[in-house]
Specification:
270 residues; mainly alpha; 3 domains; 11 helices; globular
Amino acid sequence: MGLHEFFQDYFVRPITENQGYNPVNTLVYALILGVAVILLYKMLKRMGIRVDDRFFRALMPYVILGPLMRSMTDTGILPRTYLTVSPGAYFVIAAFAIASLYAVWIHLGPEERLYPIYRDFGWVLVGGLLFILLINHERVNLNLKPLEYFIPALLIAEAFVWLTSKFLPVVKDNSLLFYTHFYDATTTFVGLQFFGFWEQHVLARWLINLSGTPAVMYVEKFLVLLPIVWVLDGWMEEEDRDLINFVKLTVFILGFGPGTRNLLIMLMGG
């Protein structure tokens, strides 16, 4: 197999033919994510931007852009290309987020006004996508049926996180991450269990096939997330706080983005 065939089989066809992820592209994308986190963190450091609550709130519209773009692609409003589905869509959104941040920073520097202006520019981009959605509303088959399963399942899942936080300080200190990833697990569980969706990720597919139920996603989320935050808050507590916060922000996005995408696709009849 030549390099071209290898790239086509493991990276192009899984996107164009909606085959989901495989072990090869999963590993490569994970490595790209790791390198990107380090480079982006160093960029923020050089720009004098702190990774704190102000930055988190300013970044939220860009986090919403990803799942909104993906759900509009799956409903046929946007063309299905490498740049409108994951992981390509996330590269596009990251490029918008970085370019917008740099454009604002170059005029204002790391002063307080940077955060609301950067946030508002992101909401303008969200508004642009919503306008495209509005003028193509006939392509959306609004379906509220998933909420009948999603809401009770989410309440039970988040109640588990709340109860666990009473006994495990590491869960309490990182409750937002656990709540977010159990929200993601709930959208996956509902989509697979009740609406015929299928799981794209390699490890999740294997666990679901092994256990015979998509409810195993809750177990996977908990067992993967727990050691991550344990290491960040325990072994890395002497490291730069901004670095730890940026890693946690990345973990949050990896839960909130796919979860919101799943929910929107179900509600939009994708």
